Amino acid sequence: MFKFGRSVVIGMVHCQALPGTPGNRHSINEIIKAACKDADIYKKCKIDAVLVENMHDVPYLPASQLGPEVTSCMTAVCSAVRAVLPSSISCGVQVLAGGNKQALAVALAAGLDFVRVEGFVFSHVADEGLMHACAGDLLRYRRQIGATNVQVFTDIKKKHCAHSITSDVSIEETAKAAEFFLSDGLIVTGTATGDPAKPRDIVDVKNVSSLPVLVGSGVTGENVHDYSDASGFIVGSHFKHDGRW
């Protein structure tokens, strides 16, 4: 995905609330149709990659409480989205909250290229509770299911979380730990969805890591040039009408 000699752009497909969640109002077929509509727009705009996420499954559950319906529905959605996109457009998935094994399973079944992972190294407190590091377990699972071709991009000091328990660990040290634990790429965010990352954080992480570094929130046409050091941008809110998902 990073073979273009420039920063890549990854567009978000935010699934409508899945069956079983409080906000669910649509059938799985309707959810698939809406996701494919977004994917088709991205295809026509010749985007570099697409990332599918169960954004509207609020309030989020920790990974240990995610039911099989989440994995099955996300597999159905992602398989359909992958079918819409040409092979030249990479496709990935994130399963909230912290459903990293579930995301790998979806990626394997749907033929996706990458997953976005929370809580890869160190612990943090998210709005759904305490999340612990998962790198060792996750990458062993990736090997066990035969999904080593699926890249794992990892958030560090991620948005919507409190990091007081690792306040003595800098973003640079977190980046180095993620690389040491075999991450395929690093994602730097602001404090919330749509909140810009600090350009200095991108520079600092790039200075200590050889991995691709992505900006994971708050990128717009007005501030994109502030992130000239970034390997890529994950863009959601800015691509939506009035910023609505």
Report on this model:
The structure is a single chain. With 245 residues, the chain is of the alpha/beta class. The chain has a single domain, classed as TIM Barrel, CATH 3.20.20.70. The chain is 31% helix and 18% strand. The protein has 6 helices and 11 strands. It has helices spanning 28-44, 68-84, 100-110, 135-144, 171-180, 199-208, and strands spanning 8-14, 49-53, 90-94, 114-117, 124-126, 129-131, 151-155, 161-162, 185-188, 213-215, 232-235. It has an 8-stranded parallel barrel with strand order 1-2-3-4-7-9-10-11, surrounded by 5 helices. It has a 3-stranded antiparallel beta sheet with strand order 6-5-8, with no helix packed on it. Strand 9 (185-188), helix 6 and strand 10 (213-215) form a beta-alpha-beta unit. Helix 1 runs parallel beside helix 2 (68-84), helix 2 packs across helix 3 and helix 5 packs across helix 6 (199-208). The longest helix is centred in the first third of the chain and has 17 residues, at 28-44. The two termini are 25 Å apart. The model has no long low-confidence stretch (mean pLDDT 94).
The CATH class, by name, is Alpha Beta
CATH architecture name = Alpha-Beta Barrel
| Number of extended strands | 11
What do we call the CATH homologous superfamily?
Answer: Aldolase class I
Here the CATH topology equals TIM Barrel
Q: Helix-strand pattern, N to C? A: EHEHEHEEEHEEHEHEE
Taken as a percent bin, the fraction of beta residues is 15-25%
State the shape.
globular
Largest sheet: 8 strands, parallel, barrel
Query: Gap between N and C termini, in Å?
Result: 25 Å
Number of helices: 6
What structural category arises from helix and sheet content? alpha/beta
**Average pLDDT value?**
94
- Which value, in Å, is the CA radius of gyration? 17 Å
Number of domains: 1
**Can you give the helix content as a percent range?**
25-40%
Instruction: Give the low-pLDDT segments.
Output: none
